[in-house]
Design goal:
Elements (H helix, E strand, L loop, with lengths): L3 H5 L5 H6 L9 H6 L1 H9 L11 H12 L5
Helix pairs in contact: 4-5
Length: about 70
């Protein structure tokens, strides 16, 4: 089961965190958990991150984390 600290937080770079700071702190478990569905939707529709899309494995890891209940 994926966890935020081990698997999800490292997916977000400093530049991703800075770009999305107005919406959510991508390095905060509580904020990412709260916005998880929206974050996944933006990554799947390629509107996040702004510079390059994630590869399918990274997207699946985030999807698995969300579907499995967003473990800390």
């Amino acid at each position: 089961m994926p966890s935020f600290e081990r698997d999800i937080k490292p997916l977000f770079r400093e530049q991703d965190r800075a770009a999305m700071e107005f919406w959510a702190d991508l390095w905060s478990y509580e904020e990412v958990k709260e916005e998880a569905a929206g974050i996944l939707e933006r990554i799947e529709d390629l509107s996040m991150p702004c510079d390059e899309p994630w590869d399918p494995e990274r997207i699946q890891l985030l999807r698995d984390w969300v579907e499995q209940g967003c473990a800390p």
